[in-house]
Amino acid sequence: MKEQPAMVENATEDATSVVRVRNLYKSFGDRHVLSGVNLDLKERENLVILGKSGTGKSVLIKCVAGLLKPDSGEINVLGYDVPSLSLKELNKLRLQVGFSFQGSALYDSMSVRENLEFPLKRNLGIYERSKLNELVKTSLEDVGLESAINMNPAELSGGMKKRVGIARTLILNPKIMLYDEPTAGLDPETATEINELILSVREKYHTASIIITHDLSCARQVSDRIVALFDGVNKLEGTFEELKQQNAQELQSFFNY
Question: Strand pairing partners for 140?
Answer without folding.
Answer: none
